[in-house]
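In the design runs reported in the main text, the only information available to the sequence generator was the tokenized backbone. The following block is the verbatim input for one such run; it is reproduced so that readers can re-run the procedure and compare outputs position by position.
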């Protein structure tokens, strides 16, 4: 009985050690300032765009992931998980020159995105694959990202290319673009009435983002 207990205890310790080692090999990145997400669309009047400069969230990656410029990494799947989000109310309509556009458009957008019930647009990463290593220290690593995008309480799986550019000091710029239809998320394209008639908004939209993240310091070991 004692031998079985010792064996079982040793197995449990090995499993815990394996889990701890795996956790230690993961690097956690947290969101930093300097990020931007832009949504672009069309209408029968003119093209439109909205922006947010606040992207929150975090990213956990395994050892085969570049933390510094020019770092050698192997092509293929990377152990990774994480999520990024933008609060709906941080999105503001802008003109092409970046100046504010129209508060009324903002309110229509918030209503269509059901901001009273769903405060955030969130992306959950489920799979990350390196397609092309950086060609120089100034060049990005090209990945294919798979995940789930949640807009207005509706979830859709999306696949998109993303560029990861290490900036030094374990800081990263993660950039990407993806296209989808409003109706994919059960959002009826806005058609507000104006004095001269009806504005008809196109169904197709594009998301463009630059997400700035930095590696978080490992927690200090408690003194014995």
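Verbatim output:
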């Amino acid at each position: 009985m004692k031998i079985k207990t010792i064996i079982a205890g040793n197995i449990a310790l090995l499993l815990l050690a394996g889990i701890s080692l795996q956790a230690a090999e993961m690097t956690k990145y947290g969101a930093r300032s300097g990020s931007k997400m832009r949504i672009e669309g069309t209408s029968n009047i003119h093209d439109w765009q909205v922006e947010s400069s606040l992207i929150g969230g975090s990213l956990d990656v395994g050892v085969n992931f570049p933390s510094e410029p020019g770092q050698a990494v192997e092509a293929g799947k990377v152990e990774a998980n994480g999520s990024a989000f933008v609060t709906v109310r941080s999105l503001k309509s802008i003109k092409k020159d970046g100046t504010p556009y129209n508060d009324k458009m903002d309110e229509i957008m918030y209503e269509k995105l059901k901001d009273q019930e769903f405060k955030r647009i969130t992306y959950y990463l489920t799979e990350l694959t390196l397609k092309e290593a950086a060609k120089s220290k100034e060049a990005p690593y090209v990945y294919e990202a798979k995940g789930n995008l949640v807009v207005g309480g509706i979830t859709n799986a999306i696949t998109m290319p993303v560029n990861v550019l290490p900036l030094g000091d374990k800081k990263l710029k993660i950039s990407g673009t993806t296209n989808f239809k409003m109706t994919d998320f059960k959002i009826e394209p806005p058609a507000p009435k104006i004095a001269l008639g009806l504005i008809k908004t196109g169904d197709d939209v594009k998301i463009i983002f630059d997400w700035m993240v930095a590696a978080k310091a490992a927690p200090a070991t408690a003194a014995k």
